[in-house]
Design a protein that fits this description.
The protein is built from eight helices and 14 strands. It is of the alpha+beta class. Strands 1, 2, 3, 4, 5, 6, 7 and 8 form an eight-stranded antiparallel beta sheet that branches. It has a six-stranded antiparallel barrel with strand order 9-10-11-14-13-12. The longest helix has 21 residues, at about 290-310. The chain starts with 7 loop residues before the first helix and ends with a helix.
């Protein structure tokens, strides 16, 4: 059953944020976090929130279909319409719809309100952005639980709407076959994370839903990146986890994103942790909408072609 009818504070955030952090579960039981634009798509009474994604980004869709338990962290107020400082974590079950041009046309006012009018033109833009605009999918999330803190750093106890938080902690995971030690430069990763204003960690909680919380980078060592996780922290022990750091400008122009997967060793206090990065990725987009759309079109077309070749 969906957890509908959330309060007005939560609804302002869900209806106002330009971006949110989507976390989904990997086949190995870790979590990956990536930014998405929810553009105020939600149904308070039905207890659903919605975001869009391109079919060209097939790996994300494949993993969500394999394990539909996801989380959306509404954590940043820049260039949106919400004024409250709340950090809102939505956990739920995602279902990707099939291609639906009528549904995409119906949400065009939301798209233009947050992202501006789309580029159009039969000679170039309609063809170049076909994989990014026309082949986008709506992903509906049936809300299982919402946790809301009245501060962006999650100070104090959260208000919980829906199913109570699990009483049993997530068990410690077995270490990867290649070991848990860092596989990329710790100093470089920490420096790049510190350079971005929004920094988040994502890991799977005791009931299988991802948990996403803000972090501070406090140091480095041979073991990895020392981080402090916002209250209430994550369950103690070792587990696979993802890091996301990002910044953006109006209409999501001028993006900078850094992402990691790796091993997170969490202390008994649930807040101090060492993160050993195993993979790293990211991109920087210039503060120019035309150049950004050229890049989006290229990545979406390439991803869609790869998905078709793989039979996805």
């Amino acid at each position: 059953m969906s957890a509908g009818g959330w309060d007005e504070e939560i609804d302002e955030v869900l209806g106002g944020d330009l971006t949110a952090a989507l976390a989904y579960v990997t086949p190995a039981g870790g979590a990956v976090a990536t930014p998405v634009a929810p553009i105020a798509l939600r149904d308070k009474q039905a207890g659903t929130v919605t975001f869009t994604t391109s079919q060209g980004f097939g790996r994300k869709l494949e993993r969500i279909r394999r394990n539909p338990k996801i989380a959306l962290a509404y954590h940043a107020r820049e260039h949106g319409y919400a004024s409250l400082p709340n950090f809102v974590l939505v956990q739920g079950t995602a279902v990707a719809r099939g291609p639906d041009r009528a549904a995409l046309e119906a949400i065009r006012p939301n798209v233009e309100r947050f992202l501006g009018p789309p580029k159009t033109g039969r000679l170039f833009w309609d063809r170049w952005l076909s994989a990014y605009y026309a082949d986008r999918l709506l992903v509906d999330v049936e809300v299982h639980r919402i946790m809301s803190w009245r501060s962006p750093d999650c100070t104090g106890e959260p208000a919980v709407h829906g199913v109570p938080a699990p009483s049993q902690p997530a068990p410690r995971q077995g270490e990867p076959a290649k070991g848990s030690a860092p596989r990329v430069s710790v100093e470089r990763a920490a420096e790049r994370l510190r350079a971005l204003p929004h920094r988040l960690v994502a890991a799977v909680g005791g009931d299988g839903y991802p948990v996403v919380l803000p972090i501070d980078v406090t140091g480095t060592s041979d073991a990895g990146i020392a981080i402090q996780i916002a209250t209430p922290g994550l369950d103690p022990g070792g587990r696979r986890a993802g890091l996301l750091a990002h910044e953006y400008r109006r209409q999501l122009v001028g993006l900078r994103v850094r992402q990691h997967t790796g091993w997170l060793e969490i202390a008994e206090d649930r807040r101090e942790a060492i993160y050993s990065p195993h993979t790293e990725g990211g991109f920087a987009a210039p503060p120019n909408k035309t150049l950004l759309l050229l890049a989006n079109g290229f990545m979406a077309r390439r991803g869609l072609r790869e998905a078709m070749q793989a039979g996805r």
